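Hey, does this match?
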Amino acid sequence: MATEAVSYERMHLNLKKLGLLSISEVVDSTLESAADKDQSLVEFLDSLLEAEVSARCERTCETKIKMARFPFKKTIDSFDFSFQPSVDRKQVRDLLSLRFLADGVNVVLLGPPGVGKTHLAVAIGMAACQAGHTAYFTTATDLVAGLTKSYTTGTFDTKMHFFGRMRLLIIDEVGYLPLDRQASNLLFQLISRRYESGSSVILTSNRGYGEWGTMFSDPVIASAVLDRLLHRSVTINIRGESYRLKDKRKAGIIGATKPVILPPEEETQAGTAG
């Protein structure tokens, strides 16, 4: 018994030294379960290794989600499709399969504020992290500020390399603030590099494509950005009301408003040519 006790202590010590913390936590209960079920040594070891792999995958996923800097954690399960019937549930489910990442396809979510564009973008980003991909979320304002600062401090290539390592880049709220010529050019360089490397971008905007010339302060740059962004892309135009106002509207605090509808040519799905 003394020898068994020494072996037991040494086992836990070695598990911790090897970093097999999940096995160390479940080995006792797994031993009991194996004895009750009369499992073989192979089945017992398989159970321990499965627990360790599962825990490590979960930790890796949580790390990727944390590094992605999502503004909140939301999945597609909490998206109210009944409130936004213009959103094609089948199309969104297809995006959640992440085939668009393998094909280097971009996703553009258009619509007025509060209709769920950011929710959908985060849900797809969360799915990418859970599948083992790297993702990064940023608003257009923060992105442009970071690119401009890196350009003036001589670290632009380092910043571009960082974004280049991200399998998925989510740029939220494009169009809320106009961009000057330098900011437009820096954003174009980022979009262009990701286009050349076949890396996907999810972009949300409250502006229709026809307004991008004004938004970028230069029609030529706007055209160049759209050319690369939309060559391989899916556009989802959300025409519903704001989630943020629906409760107030139900309570009669504010009156009903008509949904904002983008021009017909922007309601269709852009081509997905390879």
